[in-house]
Amino acid sequence: MTAINLTERIPNNVNLAGDRTLQRALEHWQPRFLNWWHEMGPEDFSAADVYLRTAVGVDAQGWASYGHVKMPDYRWGIFLADQIADRTIGFGDSFGAPVWQQVPGEFRSQFRRIIVTQGDTEPASVEQQHLLGHTCPSLYDLRNLFQINVEEGRHLWAMVYLLHAYFGRDGREEAEEMLTRHSGDVDKPRILDTFNEPIEDWLSLFMFTYFTDRDGKFQLKSLAESAFDPLARTCRFMLTEEAHHMFVGDTGIARVIRRTLEVMKEHGTADPAAIRRAGAVDLPTMQRYMNFWFTSSLDLFGSEVSSNAATTFANGIKGRPDESQYQDHNCSNATFEMEVPDGQGGVKKDAAPLRNAMNEVMRDAYIKDCEIGVKRWNMQIQRAGHEFRFSLPSPRFRRSIGAWLQVPTDPAGNLISAAAYSEGMPNWLPSAKDKAFIKSLMQRVVAPGKIAAWIAPPDRGINNLGLDYEYVKLA
Ligand code: BYC
Ligand code: FE
Ligand code: FE
Predict the structure, then answer these.
(1) pLDDT category of residue 21 using cuts at 50, 70 and 90
(2) Is residue 282 within 6 Å of ligand 1 at its C-beta?
(3) Burial class for 349, CB neighbours closer than 10 Å (0-12, 13-18, 19+)
């Protein structure tokens, strides 16, 4: 492994100093990235000292160091997981051949499209979250937000490195474009829809990091299988950072629930209006936020049947998450059964060639992973003696991509009339009133050890530090 040199202008373990042309090109992009960070990154916190972890190696043990850093001074860099000796291609038409250290010419545009799409989501999420610091429920949470933001910035670096190093002039142009598209921009929005949705409150942040960062986990896992070895190694390292993002979502939601259960107990009621009056988030409102972010994230897997998916699988570009769990890595003679609308208000079974159904295979795995948290949250509620249970909506519900696009169903997946759908929506997704209420709770709390009244404190602090530690020293 090439050690990480943190003293270089761009910290890296890819021996950047050995390729002066590439180094210069990336050093040229660096100030543009910083300009973007200043304009679109966390608003108003440039001078704050934030207790951040910084990648200093890629080993399983001890890859990070912790310390107070001003975010603009964060050491964004290029870190690839160690090369696996004699690694061979694990799926598709070239199964068993040695992995590629360069992008084969015939697959160039497909690789570029996937890398650009992946890269685009990273700065998009920072843009979505750029005002949240103002309304943090605690310094602990503020620090976690900023940790996620700097790491998503680093994930952009990871993709920009690949574009610069392996795609020549059009790669450099794509790297520029990463900084000119913006989340929610009418003229130049981000590529995938979920990343154009505003994240204006912390409940949405927790839902986003639970559900949408988890799409990141599955997409990165499938790209970690790629035949293009630098992409695989980059994604393998990104996954180590991703775990914390999902942790923030998982524990964030659990903490909101815990606080709500306390309030339910104190007031001896489950009535949403009473819970709201007491300053906590009622459980049905949480369910609506969950419905929104889960269904939006389901779209991120693409259509159930996709020729893009078949091609990227065949060509070794994108495998399935944890490809080694399967027996058949070629998949050209298999089919995948799924239920699709029959166009007459009913449902029919359809079989697609497995390669074309890879998006659906991944979505299924993703849904199972999402269920784990839901089970745990429901246990919390059950232990407190309440009947309420969260449930994830059916993957048919409120879809904007694929076979169920604009097919009206209720959250359970039953086909319903368009009128019933519009009528049900206010109960299924956060209403304007819900959003206004959640916003009203978002009061900034920044005294060390203090926490907003709508959320319980975390079980423990960061890196074995206490809850009253000054995780962010505000300027
Ligand atoms: N919104 O054949 P189809 C993360 C487009 S998250 C808008 O069905 P395909 C993170 C699609 O691009 C992980 N457009 O789908 C999380 C295509 O357009 P073109 C991000 C969409 O291509 C939190 C057309 O519809 N990584 O890292 O098989 C914080 C037909 O598409 C959407 C990746 O996504 C949508 N939801 O699969 C920070 C991995 N869905 O090309 C970061 C890279 C589809 O015909 N991307 N379309 O103009 C991919 O692997 C694939 O592009 C997709 C789509 C899975 C997204
Ligand atoms: Fe990321
Ligand atoms: Fe993430």
Answers:
(1) very high
(2) no
(3) exposed
